[in-house]
What we know:
about 140 residues, mainly alpha, about 0% strand
Amino acid sequence: MALLSLQEKHWESAALLHRETLHSSLRKDGRLPDLQEVGDRLPETPFGREASPGSRHLRCQACREAARLRLELTSVVGRLNRLMEENSNTVQLNDKLQKECEELRTQNRQLKLQVLSLLYLHQTMDSSSGLQKPILWTKPEGS
């Protein structure tokens, strides 16, 4: 008898996850399934007029707790989705900035090479004309 009341409490406080299993078991076997047949979460029988005040109270508490947990889960999932989206945007922006940085480094190297070639060309032209000037610009005298 104690096992039966324990089983009834489980059915009364469980979610409606296996409701179809419960109803098909009632139709097929004419009895409720054992605790081990359904799994961890047991089906909940619909409450009618014959439900005891204690079982109604348990159901109300379970419903409120389930609703609170659902709401909390929804907010956590929403926060997680927002953070994942922000993280994705940050990663994309970081990748874009790294590509731009690499392009700027490449452009910087190319400009340095161009400046060196122009300075070398300038020095070669000056040496061929007989004037020796330093490659790098120096401050004019008298300034």
